[in-house]
Specification:
Elements lengths: L3 H27 L13 E3 L5 E3 L8 E5 L5 H9 L1 H11 L3 E6 L11 H11 L5 E4 L4 H6 L3 E2 L1 E5 L5 E5 L15 H10 L14 E2 L3
Parallel strand pairs: 3-4, 4-5
Antiparallel strand pairs: 1-2, 3-7, 6-9, 7-8
Length: about 210
């Protein structure tokens, strides 16, 4: 038997998904695009640690930008399975910087205060260099971020080396697909150009 709480939860999810569909077209009109090989747009953003983080702070290093959302089921699945944390740990072992970015206005469901972001990092055991808040959406628009999760990898030369999905499978059950982010990091660590430099993303609309 379906309980009243279950019906309410299902309705809430449906409303949230519908709102994502409404947000996506409007946001997409304002998005820019960075081509592979172009200089990555510079930015400064407040971190959950209370410090400002500038992209220039990490000059000379490989930088992974992960667009994330605490209310996106696709992002949640990757964290719940441990796949995201394992990838973050691999990136750290390779000497890469990992910046999680929450592009959500304060009135959106996915917005996290610094305290809430810190709690989420602790709860998920995320292996990140910093968790950044992009409340104005300026960083997301500069990179053309449309969905969560989406990734942009910047090479040591400061140029965009990869953009797209984490992998080719939105689910986590019995994953046997290809992890694009891991492969891209491997190519960069080996001094090679990223062989698959751009892929199609999946997930939830960024909450501009």
């Amino acid at each position: 038997m379906t309980t009243r709480s279950q019906i309410g939860a299902a309705l809430a999810v449906s409303v949230w998904l519908f709102s994502c569909l409404l947000v996506a077209p409007a946001a997409a009109q304002e998005l820019q695009r960075v081509e592979i090989g172009q200089a990555a747009p510079a930015f400064t953003a407040p971190g959950a640690d209370g410090r400002p983080h500038r992209l220039t702070d990490y000059a000379g290093k490989v930088v992974v930008l992960e667009w994330t959302s605490p209310v996106c089921p696709y992002s949640q699945l990757k964290y719940k399975s441990g796949a995201m944390q394992a990838l973050q740990a691999q990136a750290r072992a390779m000497g890469a910087v990992w910046l999680s970015i929450d592009t959500a206005a304060p009135d959106r469901p996915g917005y996290l205060s610094p305290k809430a972001a810190t709690a989420r990092i602790r709860k998920t055991h995320a292996v990140v260099t910093a968790f950044l808040s992009d409340r104005t959406g300026n960083i997301g628009r500069a990179y053309g971020a449309k969905t969560t999760p989406t990734f942009f990898i910047i090479g040591k030369d400061g140029r965009l080396a990869y953009q797209g999905a984490m992998d080719d499978d939105p689910s986590v059950d019995d994953f046997k697909g290809r992890n694009y982010v891991r492969d891209a990091l491997g190519d960069l660590a080996g001094g090679r150009a990223v062989r698959v430099a751009e892929t199609k993303t999946y997930g939830c609309a960024v909450e501009y």
